[in-house]
Write a structure and sequence with these properties.
- With 539 residues, the protein is of the alpha/beta class.
- It is 37% helix and 16% strand.
- The protein contains 23 helices and 18 strands.
- The chain has a six-stranded parallel beta sheet, sandwiched between helices. Strands 9-8-7-10-11-12 form a six-stranded parallel beta sheet, with helices on both faces. A six-stranded parallel beta sheet has the order 14-13-15-16-18-17, with helices on both faces.
- The longest helix is centred in the N-terminal third of the chain and has 15 residues.
- The radius of gyration is 24 Å and the shape is globular.
- The chain starts with a helix and ends in a 10-residue tail after the last strand.
Length: 539
């Protein structure tokens, strides 16, 4: 067999059912071979889209997402999406390859050096007979290191005779970190146990560790309020002391609880500038930080008691030690005060509607859309000023059903990430929340959703500008029109591409989405018109 046939078969043997890619000389043979062997090849419009789709697929399926591009500029086109995957610890395999070994070939490029600079891992197929072993190693590193791996299959090897190969070895996931010892938890338990107004904060690491029940028990033992980062949102939904998102997007009642808390115990949370509101929210408080990655301790927020450990196992050990010490329901006055402040309260109570004659307040729009969409849904968000409405108000049934394509801070990856999520086989409808600038940046990738006939709802939050820059230009005394764009009619563009579309200038017009969803046989674009002069973000 030729190398390209063995690669196609080995991908299938590793359980890969989908490859996102853009075809060129380096992958011209193994992609159709993979498809003819029963796999699904999803042709994309831009190489960054291939990696972002593989990333979205991986985040929602829990499996390795695979992307394939040819050499040279095709690889460099993936870099922003590749770094996004690195920053978000995504399980992505990107297959590319060196061009023909001619020094003057214009696609010559140091794949290894740039991969390393991006923070991804690098592997190379050393020869025809080592293909399976090299692919095994690449897949193992994706799973074990929880970051993208770039596999270089030089084009000179693709049509070579494969020869005898090593057996396929499926990757083994790393075991959860061991529970920390009692002595390791002395300082953390001392701070939490002596606090009069504790708060437990859970991030994505707590979600992935399955720590909810252990953290709720810990909160009930200590009387703590419960909160999450954006990527842990809805983890504690329904608990009487759940204040929701902690940080710059906290609602009014949560702000009060956060301000009064004297100790924050964070589990699997990055404590970044948005969660910490540039450090303001932790000032004057004792901070306990539990994370599997000690490099995160103190990186953005000073920490009084760092604990290296898995969120669930650490919380379980804390509960055991507190039970041994007879702590069952501490700080009852604080517990009652928090629950009382939240009783009957809704974040919608904070919303003073700023809708105009032909524009909708982003928060009002998301509250309305939240009621119209099915409760079981996946939400994939781009980043931008619109997040102030989407993240707090467009809810999900489980925090694992929500993700943000924003680990690197680049706009424009949300659409492709949502396409990948829609092809991950979860069975849930997928909602992409994107800004108009990010959508137009990768407009052509919308045609991929159309070609694949995905039941994907793309909500474009359209203020006709780069919104953050619009606000900042005005703050600095410049004309904000420099950030404005007179886009074509987005609904018209979507319709021309073969999708359904709806333009929304009044919140009530979103009710039509509920009527359109049951009969969708492809994507639906909702162009929600916003006023760029309405700023709701705490910078």
């Amino acid at each position: 067999m030729k190398v390209f046939h063995v690669l196609a078969d080995t991908l299938t043997a590793h359980g890969v059912d989908t490859v996102f890619g853009l075809m060129g000389n380096a992958n011209l043979l193994y992609l159709p071979a993979f498809a003819e062997a029963g796999g699904r090849f999803v042709p994309v419009v831009h190489e960054a889209g291939a990696v972002a789709m593989a990333d979205g697929y991986a985040r929602m399926s829990g499996r390795v997402g695979v992307a394939s591009v040819t050499h040279g500029p095709a690889f460099t086109n993936t870099l922003t999406a590749l770094v996004e995957g690195v920053r978000s610890r995504s399980r992505v395999l990107l297959i590319t390859g060196d061009p023909p070994p001619v020094p003057t070939h214009f696609h010559q490029f140091d794949i290894s050096a740039v991969t390393t600079a991006a923070g991804a891992a690098y592997e190379r197929v050393q020869g025809p007979s080592s293909l399976v072993a090299d692919l095994n190693r690449a897949m193992q590193r994706v799973v074990a290191e929880q970051r993208p791996v770039v596999l270089n299959l030089p084009i000179a090897l693709v049509e070579a005779e494969a020869g005898e190969q090593a057996p396929v070895a499926l990757p083994v996931a790393p075991a959860p970190s061991a529970a920390p010892g009692e002595e390791t938890l002395d300082a953390a338990l001392g701070l939490l146990g002596s606090a009069k107004r504790p708060l437990i904060l859970a991030g994505r690491g707590a979600v992935l560790a399955g720590a909810r029940d252990a953290l709720v028990e810990l909160a009930d033992r200590t009387g703590a309020a419960l909160a999450t980062t954006v990527l842990g949102k809805e983890l504690f939904a329904g608990h009487p002391r759940d204040i929701g998102i902690f940080g710059s997007l906290a609602h009014g009642a949560a702000d009060t609880v956060i301000a009064e808390a004297d100790c924050v115990a964070a589990f699997g949370a990055g404590l970044n500038m948005w969660t910490a509101l540039n450090g303001d929210l932790f000032r004057g408080k004792k901070v306990v930080h539990v994370d599997t990655d000690p490099a995160r301790f103190g990186s953005c927020t000073p920490v009084d008691a760092p604990v290296a450990g898995d969120a669930r196992r650490t919380a379980e050990t804390m509960n055991t030690l507190l039970e041994r010490a007879g702590v069952t329901a501490a700080n009852p006055a604080w517990s009652r005060r928090v629950a009382g402040r939240l009783a009957g309260y809704s974040p919608e109570d904070d919303v003073e509607d700023h809708s105009g004659p032909d524009t909708v307040d982003i928060r009002t729009a998301m509250i309305r859309l939240d009621r119209v969409l099915p409760a079981e849904r996946t939400v994939v968000s781009d980043i931008g000023r619109f997040d102030v409405g989407v993240w707090p108000h467009l809810r999900v049934a489980d925090p694992s059903h929500f993700t943000v394509m924003g680990g690197f801070g680049s706009i424009g990856l949300g659409l492709a990430g949502a396409i990948g999520a829609a092809m991950s086989g979860t069975g849930r409808p997928v909602v992409a929340a994107v800004g108009d600038g990010g959508f137009m940046m990768h407009l052509s990738e919308f045609t991929t959703a159309v070609r694949q006939r995905l039941k994907l709802v793309v909500v474009v939050l359209d203020d006709g500008a780069y919104g953050a820059e619009h606000y900042k230009l005005r703050r600095h005394g410049y004309d904000p029109a420099y950030s404005a764009f007179a886009w074509p009619d987005l609904a018209g563009l979507a319709t021309a591409m073969g999708a359904r579309a709806l333009t929304v200038r009044k919140a009530a017009e979103l009710d039509a989405v509920g009527d359109l969803l049951p009969d969708l046989d492809g994507p639906l674009l909702i162009d929600v018109r916003l006023d760029p002069d309405v700023n709701l973000v705490r910078y």
